[in-house]
């Protein structure tokens, strides 16, 4: 064996290696896989961390909330960028309602002279802060109101907190509640308060949750300082998101609009977010029972529940204006399938400067657009149409994306292959949520992208983090045994919602995080200065996001066979069903045991006479629920998904491929239930929805799960029927597809 | 059936009821059971809550720590009380070493001008506080020292905290550490600090643990205020308790004494307890990594681990005096078995006023003595001798009781039927710990005593509390199914230690608590004013304690057959063995998985580059351990315990009863291993010991458990052999006893 032979062997080895790598691009013939990998390599070379940083700096330099001139300036800047990169781009404008504050008063009779500051101070260490006319701290969609009442501390303001208040004999009717930010989407807190008869809600940021308890505060570290306030929407978007006046339809100039009072996603009570500086004197003045351990924060006094001597006066008035929401839509037409759209989006509006939220994610998106533009200048033509979007009005309630989706619903259900969303991005670990038929696809991509810090794949780094943070040895063993990536289910909180949950368009939400924690969210301190010190100093995770989302978009645009794998969906729904069975089983056992404890009088006997606490009320026993329809539906789906997977090959004839691909990307629409979820018809997907009492947090198989959680047994069985019907519809649809490509 | 018949039936029914009640007094013939119950009813009538309150007020009116004149005054007051109740009483005095502070300086270069206050202020709301010459705040047995060094925060100062420091690359060698009170006995903290090379230790009370985080602070509520300090001993009493100069022998006038430097239970570094007022500036000045969540307290700043700019100067000097410890010993001679002693004790010395600790428990004991004295005046003579004791010098390290036990060791091993201990008492739930052969006996008593607040039995109330606070539905179901009382195992922290763990005398520790939580422990605020507001306002739990301990003492004194049931002991040891098996199994699995995670490099990959944290070091795999000797020993014990239980009847002839009873109460001595535990020969019991790294907290089957926990596998198997031998010795002993009463 001479040297030459050895060299040949090495070459062969490298070739095998590379062909092995090709096999990882599912949906591509091996020739096309090689081309696609070359394309991605060129795409990657077009990405610049510095350029991402520059965009973050430029677009977050001044505040740019929905409806203000700078918001339009940002939209037009983005528009120009798209155009300069060679994209066909335009603004698409909707007219939406958007309240901004006119009057904000929070004062109290006790402690004497109390008047809330309601203002975040400028910091000399952060030159961005303190610009003129910063948007005051407020919760958008609070009702106008002028109320005075006693104050009650309600922990995070969730239903279980009110159950505990009831045991204490404390009623919030006619009172103002003060809740901590955290544990749920903020809009849940005033909604539950309103359900319990409260006349107003204060939401404050306890230093336990994102302030000094967590770490050094800004500007020393990234955490929330004394006066920091989280702005944010409290629209009840689990009913429907988007413009409250135009549910289900695009908020075009001439759309038919509801009266504001008829909008079912607007609350009736005034709501104000405050800093812990403003909250502390009110909390310290509360009397009544000491708050239980889980309710206590990090302020240096004993947390009482109230009420106390303080009568609190809350007066809020808003300017309820119609404003234009400027979506920027850029397209690059598909060479083979122009009517198949791969959509990629990130919002551009911010509460104030919004360097992290949303500009960091947006800048990655723009960088992708730039790199794809360069590919195009060098001859690249995507097979399918790429649609890159920068949404306006996400912060007040996903307004821009929702109105666009509603306006284009029919066309999107025909054409949209998938929607890939991002939002704020930071250092850390890969996060992917979305449609589970895309789970293996995203796993392939995640295994092929290198983590900027550790130089292993972002998949491997995420798995390492899962391993280290897993709570039990059993969980660690499960992770060690796992070879594939798991993606999470999507609730709400960013612009994928209408695509996925209203139209059934396969959706993904991608980003990095976990090492960029801080307290700047929705405050004036979400600045370039802050971002570039604490979130992603070298903007390398910005590049990683561009690669992640860009490769996904390009592969979807160019795949011979679209990389949907319904075995993953089937497996995932099976898992959810197992969860639901065990949820019902546990509730049954817990209820039986708890009722026995109640009937034994144990709560009274265990109680401290100096701390009166009623026993919980016994709950009706949990019946056995018939899951069989669902279980049978899943057996069928499982089989069909396997058939189809075996049959879907890039080598199929073009005509069959075209039929197959369209069927694959439209399949998820079979999981829509036209009448939607109980009491919130806008949400039509039977597998994914935001929780009625969690907000951002997802409820998988929401119709069934929420019925069980809220002990509506008849509804649970109805919802099982609805889900089974939808799954059977999907199975039939996939089986038909399978037959059509076999024949 | 006429009315008369009906009345007879009712009478019969009542008789049956009453005879059923009699059967609950195991160890008594039914005739004697009735007599005993009558006796107990008369005893109960002799108890007065007001008298208990008066004793608490009188004996805690001035400070009375070991060695000061008031300590002697208290002993003499108790002596006079015993005498006045008709007991034969005397002082038994030992000469013990006891250091009090001469110099206490804590200062720092940063923050500038820092000098610790080291003084608890008087409160106008509590007239007891602020008397002249209150004992300064200090930790007894701290070394003299004058050290200057950087400061490192070590959480609770336990071995696992230092493992984490090692991962951070922070070494305490040559530094001063600051640890929080809590999670372990205080003496563990400086011991572990010294093991790691620290030159001094500060221990502070974080408001999270017993201050404002828990509830309103004194005098508004019972929790620890800004300047409150916990005094206390840091003698390494898990090596041996009692006078450090006379291990194993009574500290009589002429006892042979060690040089102080040769006492292996004294640490070499200076140690000072401080308030959070004094700790906060030092903690706030720390730099370095942010402390992990579990380390953080409730002070309003970010907890860093250090070190920082501060150099801390700690200078401590003590007056190492020999002082007299006055035990008060009162006896009431047994009419039938004067050489069988039922011993009841509670200490009388306090750190300052000590209303709760120890005077509340002591006052219940005195009330028992009074009521028994009244019974005696009316003709009652206990069959066995009652010995009521008030120990001195418990606070610095169980000095009085240990020296008495060591001085009388041989006699006690012959004569002591059981030792019943109490200490501070408060409102709440029954607590019983001790020798498990007495578990059913204590269960009977607990079921017959009424809880002052709820009027159900103290057993039932405890079970209700266990039910409500159980962490899982499974645990709740287990409790619901449970009919018998479980007693806990004893570690250390009060005067039972030498009886049980050094001599193998059956011991019990009894009291109430759980609703009297506060922050007064070992501070100047443990006063009558505090006690009577927060701990046991009507002193009714004082009466309940008198009933509980008094009934136990009287039943043990009068029983025909002593109520030892070795089936309970056997069952308990079986349970511990199952725990140990599962501990080894879990360690094996955890070690394997953790080592795999470490070898996967997951810690490095999951780590944040801005927060360097080394991976844990891989640990040797856990071998399979041979438990068979122990398991076989338990099978045999189980059988014999059942034989004996079947045979032990009050109807046995007197001579056999006498043999049986003596054998029963001496049986537990068979569980002593003469060479004691590894490196701490004073602790001889193979089932119960305080943990080497927990202090007060018990380690059951300590030789085996600590060997496994500390990964000394060979030692674990040796200790299994030692435990098995001891258990076999007990089995043989019981079998011999069984044979002797059969023949």
TrEMBL record, chains A, B:
Which stretches make up the Transferrin receptor-like dimerisation domain?
626-734
Keyword Signal among UniProt keywords = yes
Where does the signal sequence lie? 1-23
| Domain Peptidase M28 per the UniProt entry, residue ranges | 327-532
Q: GO terms for molecular function, please?
A: metallocarboxypeptidase activity
Give, as one word, the top-level EC class.
hydrolase
Chain ranges of the PA domain: 147-211
Q: Please provide the record's keywords in A-Z order.
A: Carboxypeptidase, Hydrolase, Protease, Signal
InterPro entries per record: PA_dom_sf, PA_domain, Peptidase_M28, Peptidase_M28B, TFR-like_dimer_dom, TFR-like_dimer_dom_sf
In the Enzyme Commission scheme, what number(s) does this protein have? Answer: 3.4.17.21
The family line of this record is: Belongs to the peptidase M28 family. M28B subfamily.
Can you name this protein? Glutamate carboxypeptidase II
To which species is this protein native? Chitinophaga pinensis (strain ATCC 43595 / DSM 2588 / LMG 13176 / NBRC 15968 / NCIMB 11800 / UQM 2034)
């Amino acid at each position: 064996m001479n040297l030459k032979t050895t060299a040949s062997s090495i070459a062969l080895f490298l070739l095998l290696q590379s062909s092995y790598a090709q096999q990882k691009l599912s949906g591509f013939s091996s020739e096309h896989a090689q081309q696609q990998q070359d394309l991605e390599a060129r795409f990657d070379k077009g990405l610049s961390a510095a350029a991402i940083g520059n965009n973050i700096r430029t677009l977050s330099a001044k505040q740019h909330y929905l409806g203000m001139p700078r918001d339009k300036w940002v939209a037009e800047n983005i528009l120009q960028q798209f155009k300069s990169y060679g994209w066909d781009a335009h603004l698409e404008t909707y007219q939406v309602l958007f309240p901004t504050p006119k009057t904000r008063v929070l004062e109290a009779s006790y402690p004497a002279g109390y008047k809330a500051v309601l203002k975040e101070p400028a910091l000399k260490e952060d030159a961005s802060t303190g610009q003129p006319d910063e948007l005051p701290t407020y919760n958008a969609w609070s009702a106008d109101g002028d109320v005075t009442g006693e104050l009650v501390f309600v922990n995070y303001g969730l239903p279980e907190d009110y159950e505990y208040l009831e045991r204490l004999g404390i009623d919030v009717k006619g009172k103002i509640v003060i809740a901590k930010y955290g544990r749920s989407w903020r809009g849940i807190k005033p909604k539950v308060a309103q359900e319990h008869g409260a006349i107003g809600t204060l939401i404050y940021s306890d230093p336990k949750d994102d302030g000094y308890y967590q770490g050094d505060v800004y500007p020393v570290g990234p955490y929330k300082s004394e006066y920091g306030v989280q702005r944010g929407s409290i629209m009840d978007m689990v009913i429907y998101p988007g413009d409250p006046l135009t549910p289900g339809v695009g908020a075009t100039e001439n759309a038919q609009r509801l009266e504001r009072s008829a909008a079912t996603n607007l609350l009736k009570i005034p709501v104000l977010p405050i800093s812990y500086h403003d909250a502390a004197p009110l909390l310290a003045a509360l009397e009544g029972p000491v708050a239980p351990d889980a309710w206590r924060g990090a302020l240096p006094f004993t947390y009482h529940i109230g009420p106390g001597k303080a009568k609190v006066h809350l007066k809020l008035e808003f300017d309820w204006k119609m404003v234009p929401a400027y979506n920027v839509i850029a397209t690059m037409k598909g060479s083979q399938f122009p009517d198949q759209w791969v959509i990629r989006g990130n919002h551009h509006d911010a509460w104030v400067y919004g360097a992290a939220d949303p500009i960091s994610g947006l800048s990655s998106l723009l960088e992708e657009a730039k790199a794809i533009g360069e590919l195009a200048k060098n001859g690249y033509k995507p097979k399918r149409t790429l649609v890159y979007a920068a949404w306006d009005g996400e912060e007040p309630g996903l307004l821009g994306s929702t109105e666009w989706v509603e306006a284009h619903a029919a066309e999107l259900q025909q054409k949209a292959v998938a929607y890939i969303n991002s939002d704020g991005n930071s250092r850390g670990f890969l996060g992917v949520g979305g449609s589970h038929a895309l789970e293996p696809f995203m796993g392939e991509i995640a295994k092929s992208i290198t983590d900027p810090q550790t130089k292993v794949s972002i998949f491997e780094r995420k798995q390492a983090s899962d391993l280290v943070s897993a709570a039990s040895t059993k969980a660690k063993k499960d992770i060690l045994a796992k070879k594939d990536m798991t993606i999470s289910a999507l609730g709400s909180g960013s612009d994928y919602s209408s695509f996925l949950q209203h139209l059934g368009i396969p959706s993904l939400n991608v980003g990095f995080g976990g090492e960029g924690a801080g307290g700047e969210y929705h405050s004036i301190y979400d600045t370039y200065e802050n971002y570039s010190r604490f979130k992603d100093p070298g903007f390398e995770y910005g590049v990683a996001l561009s690669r992640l989302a860009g490769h996904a978009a390009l592969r979807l645009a160019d795949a011979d066979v679209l990389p949907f794998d319904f075995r993953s969906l089937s497996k995932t729904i099976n898992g959810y069903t197992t969860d639901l069975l065990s949820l019902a089983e546990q509730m049954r056992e817990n209820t039986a045991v708890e009722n026995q404890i109640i009937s034994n009088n144990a709560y009274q006997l265990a109680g401290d006479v100096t701390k009166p606490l009623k026993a919980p009320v016994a709950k009706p026993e949990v019946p056995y629920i018939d899951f069989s329809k669902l279980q049978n539906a899943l057996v069928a789906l499982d089989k069909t998904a396997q058939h189809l997977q075996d049959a879907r090959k890039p080598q199929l004839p073009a005509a069959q491929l075209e039929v197959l691909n369209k069927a694959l990307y439209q399949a998820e629409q079979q999981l829509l239930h036209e009448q939607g979820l109980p009491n919130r018809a806008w949400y039509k997907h039977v597998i994914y929805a935001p929780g009625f009492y969690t907000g951002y947090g997802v409820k998988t198989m929401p119709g069934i799960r929420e019925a069980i959680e809220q002990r509506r047994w008849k509804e649970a069985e109805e919802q099982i029927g609805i889900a089974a019907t939808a799954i059977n519809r999907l199975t039939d649809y996939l089986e038909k597809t399978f037959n059509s490509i076999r024949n």
